[in-house]
Amino acid sequence: MSTAKILNFIDGAYREGRSWFEKRNPCDNQVFAAVAEAGKDEVDAAVAAARKALRGPWGRMTVHERAAILHRVADGITARFEEFLAAECRDTGKPRSLASHIDIPRGAANFKIFADLVKNVPTESFVLDTPDGKGAVNYALRRPKGVIGVICPWNLPLLLMTWKVGPALACGNTVVVKPSEETPSTAALLGEVMNEAGVPPGVYNVVHGFGPDSAGEYITSHPDVNAVTFTGETRTGAAIMRAGAGFIRPVSLELGGKNPALVFADADLDKAIEGTMRSVFANCGQVCLGTERVFVERPVFDQFVERLRTGAEGLVIGTPDDKAANMGPLVSREHQSKVLSYYQKARDLGAAVVTGGGTPEVPAALAEGAWVQPTIWTGLGDDSAIMREEIFGPCCHISPFDDEDEVVARGNDTEYGLCCSIWTENASKAHRVASQMDTGLVWVNSWFLRDLRTPFGGSKRSGIGREGGVHSLEFYTELSNVCVKL
Ligand code: NDP
What we know:
17 helices; Aldehyde Dehydrogenase, Chain A, domain 1; seven-stranded mixed sheet; alpha/beta; binds NADPH dihydro-nicotinamide-adenine-dinucleotide phosphate; Aldehyde Dehydrogenase, Chain A, domain 2; globular; 486 residues; 23 strands
């Protein structure tokens, strides 16, 4: 085995842990690195370093000084673009074309965006009349919350991690990050960039490991962590809430989804097909915002199914370096088993398999990789497991509908509430339907079009809280009111 080592990053230096675990390449399931698993000692050291850094130079810097350093972090990622790209693609198997357009540039941009935002955001102020006629002035101060635990998933590792670390640091906090065990590389590499950019030791710490009885749980149950921000599965989010309950610790949760697309007969079908192709199959379907339930108005149902099938069958499966490929493997063999179990379940439930439903043919060298076919089903009821449970693979079920009220009710008939896409050329209908969807995000005639100043997050079991723009500041700062009697 090639034994690259991926280490914890604590107090500005790389450290081994209590043991090692293997990191495998999802394209061929070969081990390419040993990852240092942090035990309690390493997590304690990371939290202590983060606490100390709050009192040190980081805690005394002006907003402008912090912002300048975070700009250097973003520039440092960009300067080492190829290294970050290679690391992200090796961990996830995703096409270079995707990671070079989304994961790495947005990962860098998250530092600049929040640094600039924090410099410019106002706080409120009130003048109060008092009986003596002299009055009082109130003004609000935003102060960092302290040490933030950041627990991340594997689907967009650098992007989703910096989406939390960017605002946390911009607001003056320090962080202890636990990347997913599947994607440890870019978080570790970022430690080098932090040092080069002049981020003081202890401000950014990374501990590797798993959830229960490992680094994840040690962070979320640590008494000296002030808040935890988490992106991942709804079940894990519940465990993290329970862990923090005794400390009355704030949590920000970005959780799962079972997102619908509503395609009306008056939609521009070229746009609807292009958008739905991306929302179902991008990143091999491993996007929290991805569409797994498509509802199409009956007059265009057959045409839509046929066109999406043609699109799916045109996808080219391959390794990150394959320039022709636009779909990689799933992140791991374990996740492949989960997705394939749903492919089997769909067949058992009597779904019509429009395309896919199994594993693709790949060259012998890739036979052990986590490959699955892009898959489309029709014919299942809204109560089937395929329509209710998040699969997180390159697949969707397409159902016909007959009227607007019906499709609004069916689109909302899920325990999740992350996002939906509405496809129609009728502007009144678009606004009317958008206002009725129980989701944190609604796209009309688009998908994944993100203005980073806008609120991002899910309702129902898709999460608690909103991130993005000033909404990130709500979580990463403590608002204190100062009342001055004149
Ligand atoms: P998981 O919930 O399995 O894991 C997320 C992170 O939590 C990992 O680092 C994991 O560690 C860690 N973890 C697991 N159990 C615990 C625990 N008890 N205490 C503390 N940490 C724990 O999610 P996935 O990584 O599988 O990511 C996919 C999920 O993320 C999907 O449900 C998807 O919808 C959701 N997601 C939501 C987004 C949103 O914005 N709403 C965006 C992207 C994804 P380890 O992996 O090492 O076990």
